[in-house]
Amino acid sequence: MSEKKLNGQTALVTGANSGIGEGVAISLGEAGANVVVNYVVNPDAADAVVEKIKSLSSNAVAIQADVSKEDQVISMFQQVVQKFGTVDILVNNAGLQRDAKFHEMTLAQWQLVIDINLTGQFLCAREAIREFLRRGIVPERSIACGKIICMSSVHELIPWGGHANYATSKGGIKMLMQSLAQEYGGQKIRVNGICPGAIKTPINQSAWDTPEAYNSLMTLIPYDRIGVPDDIGKLAVFLASDDSDYITGASMFIDGGMTVFKGFSTGG
Ligand code: NAD
Question: In the annotation, is 166 catalytic?
Fold first, then answer.
């Protein structure tokens, strides 16, 4: 990347020591941002992402926090402000699945997914917006006062049997994202969603790690390939930069066409 579009800005990426979060953190670092690599387990993987970003000549630091815990999120943001002075970009990425048939789903499975995928985004977005409002616009860095990117999913649109807790969390993220875009647009805070289709990461390994599974997955994807974290990283850089200054409240689907419903190409 020749132009460092995020020079001087600080980005916090949650769940950044694996999969999409890792790819996004590296892309933001490559674009010149200082990057906070949030993680909850596996500090070695977080350190490896930090080292990779430093090798691209950007600043990076790993901070442990469980995004579903209010005190840990508040403390993480305090550490970020202490280290980098402020935060300009939040990528609310941390998430997980706990799949079960709905009639067999335990309250613990439901609650964990809602706590991390949805309440985690609430807690981090609230701290980010408090910091954006405290700091105000710094025109040398960005036209906007702050940018929030919410990692949603095609499942904010496509219902998903056997994954009701996960799909519900993503539907909730869509409304959270749009409500924040509406509430804080006047203060020049932009809030958008990224809605990935199938991206090759540990969360969905069983959907791509055998030829049978991969071929079955391809029946859903017109563009006929699985996505990779770098696909998402490039979109995150765009949404974090002033190139997307007139985009707020948008769900950006990045799914090889999954949401144009391949099954209807020959029938329906
Ligand atoms: P992943 O399992 O590789 O990464 C998830 C990350 O979130 C990990 O780093 C994990 O440790 C972290 N995490 C989990 N609980 C946490 C907590 N309480 N606090 C902080 N971090 C926590 O999976 P991924 O595919 O990279 O998923 C990243 C995001 O992308 C998720 O929100 C997921 O729902 C979304 N997504 C993924 C796909 C896909 O196909 N991979 C598709 C649509 C949406």
Answer: yes
- Asked whether residue 263 is assigned to any structural domain, the reply reads no
Pocket (CB within 6 angstroms of ligand 1): 14-15, 17-21, 38-41, 66-68, 93-96, 116, 151, 153, 196, 198-199, 201-204
- Owning domain of residue 140: 10-251
User: Could you say which residues of the chain have pLDDT below 70?
Assistant: 1-2, 268
266 inside domain: no
In a domain, 4, yes or no: no
pLDDT score recorded for residue 267? 78
Q: How far apart are CA 160 and CA 18, in angstroms?
A: 24
How many domains, in total, are found in the chain?
1
Write out pLDDT tens, residues 20-41: 999 999 999 999 999 999 999 9
For atom 41 of ligand 1, which residue has the closest CA? 199
The CATH code of the domain that includes 126 is: 3.40.50.720
Question: What are the φ/ψ torsions at residue 216 (nearest 5 degrees)?
Answer: -65, -40
Q: How far is the centre of ligand 1, averaged over its atoms, from the C-alpha of 212 (Å)?
A: 24
> Does residue 257 sit within a domain?
no
Candidate list 39, 166, 214, 223, residue with the active-site label = 166
CA of residue 36 to ligand 1 center, whole Å: 16
